[in-house]
Amino acid sequence: MEIRLVQGSDYYVISPLINDWWNGRKMSDMLPKLFFDHFKNTSFIAEEEGEIIGFLIGFLSQSYSNEAYIHFVGIHPEHRGKGIGRQLYNQFFDVIKQHGRSIIRCVTSPVNKDSIAYHTKMGFEIEQGDSINQDKVLFIKCLT
Amino acid sequence: MEIRLVQGSDYYVISPLINDWWNGRKMSDMLPKLFFDHFKNTSFIAEEEGEIIGFLIGFLSQSYSNEAYIHFVGIHPEHRGKGIGRQLYNQFFDVIKQHGRSIIRCVTSPVNKDSIAYHTKMGFEIEQGDSINQDKVLFIKCLT
């Protein structure tokens, strides 16, 4: 398994897969091609024998000079539990540190219990949101 | 009418409106809160007497140091044809120029004939895409 930076063309491979990877939830609208084109230097693909088995799409916050944001992480259902996610996150953490960022935010849906457990295991903490935003779990992690 | 920078809280006002503004098309999944939080300095709200009547969400490309991208522009149906869109675009052009960017990209759906006509009027050119990306019209504009 190797990890490399995202390319624009990865969109055409990943976009048709993600509803399946998310157990039939309609997720692909949330990941337009712009993320594959304009955030290449902070987004990563995990590949095995030429097949994409995982990805992480993240970016440096333009508003907050100390922050980075992870928008989407997906692992092929048959390749879960092998530490691929952890490698993708660690790669992201390393790169954003090089850009002087130490705070990482991401959100997940309250229905996605696996995601909540996973982020907690990865050292993210649940942040108290504004009272309006009840439909999202907000995560924050500070790199030391 | 005044134009100001986006705030995170604008998401809660705009998100419930946009499917209506887009004539019932399901668009709100394409505009998650992250755009209101992390691209504040290149995203704008048009407001009249405290009511949001238009918005433009754009960002500086992280991959291409000369490029900026416009993700979403919406104008309240009753306030179209008054030049609000033009003012939002011009505000965006001014700000990205200050960041040393001169190329702007955006995409629209082939079904959205109004959007295609509007971008052409605003000086965008249609770019030949890769053959796979048939479901999008790709626009480019170079600031002089």
Describe what you observe in this structure.
The structure is a homodimer of 144-residue chains. The first copy, chain A, is of the alpha+beta class. Chain A has a single domain, classed as Aminopeptidase (3-Layer(aba) Sandwich). In chain A, 26% of the residues lie in helices and 30% in strands. Chain A contains five helices and seven strands; from the N terminus they run βαααβββαβαββ. The first copy, chain A, has a seven-stranded mixed beta sheet. In chain A, β2 and β3 form a beta hairpin. Chain A is globular. The two termini of chain A are 28 Å apart. At the A-B interface, α3 and β4 of A face α3 and β4 of B.
Write the layout of secondary structure elements.
2 copies of one chain form a homodimer.
Chain A: E1 2-5, H1 10-14, H2 18-21, H3 34-38, E2 44-48, E3 51-60, E4 67-75, H4 84-98, E5 103-108, H5 113-121, E6 125-127, E7 137-142
Parallel strand pairs in A: 4-5
Antiparallel strand pairs in A: 1-2, 2-3, 3-4, 5-7, 6-7
